[in-house]
Amino acid sequence: MKEKAAELAVVSNKTFAASTAVNLHHYDISSALQTTLEFDELIAIFCNKIQHTIPHNGVEYTNPEFDLEYKRGVLARHSCSYALKVEEQQLGELKLTRSQRFSKDELKLLESLLCCLIYPLRNATLFQQALKMAFTDPLTKANNRTAFNDSLLREIKRAHRSGSHLSLIFVDVDHFKSINDQYGHECGDLALASVAAWLKESVRGSDAVYRYGGEEFVILLSDTDIDGAMVIGERIRADIESHTLAYGMDVLNLTASLGVATLKGDDTFDSLLKRADAAMYQAKRQGRNRVEAGF
């Protein structure tokens, strides 16, 4: 069913597309929403601004593209939900809840006010997409080396400050040069992308996978000591070995050599990296397809 609201056309009972004009009566909300490009801050500002005219007890905002789930307040029995989009670009879903039903007049007003939120959400989406591209390796879709450097510096400071554990795992695909030489770079690219996907499947949700360069990957393990990192490393090694890669009429069996290191009290960015890297090369010298620890 199609209905018409002041500034928004209802595409379905849950989906809204914004018009280009913004009602001048909504200037206060629109101005406040220009102060940030963070999704959770935009939703908080919007809900604070409409609280007086459309009282609500709870807020939920989800944005699957960025794995974002924002919740505030107490979720109640009655709700109204809107999947927001502009020019066919999905901007997430907003849900308000409270103990009594929303009246038709309140819903009509809310649908009008949502036009103030649409374009700030689009700006935030474009900004976050640009950030994501800047920190993502285009071939493997893993985080890139720039993202790794930033994350490791931040995690080292956090670990030193809180006294928590921090570990690294360097992963190097065995005999990768021979794959390129025998099958070509297209096959090599497929192998790297496949390994990156297997790594993401093997690690915990709190761990991050980065392409360090060439056929090397690195995994950042927060709150993980050397014993825990070795267990994860062995699981990763076994997972890679258990996969096969089909390329044309050929089937390739890949393996990897892994080096593990855990942050010490006097470690710096460089010293931690060197120990993990040295452990990985030790695994190669010991015959490849194995995990070694750097102490």
TrEMBL record:
Protein's GO biological process: cell adhesion involved in single-species biofilm formation; negative regulation of bacterial-type flagellum-dependent cell motility
Known cofactor(s): Mg(2+)
Reactions it catalyzes: 2 GTP = 3',3'-c-di-GMP + 2 diphosphate
Record domain GGDEF: where: 164-295
Enzyme Commission code: 2.7.7.65
Matching CDD domains: GGDEF
GO cellular component: plasma membrane
A GO molecular-function annotation: diguanylate cyclase activity
Domain of life: Bacteria
Name this polypeptide is given: diguanylate cyclase
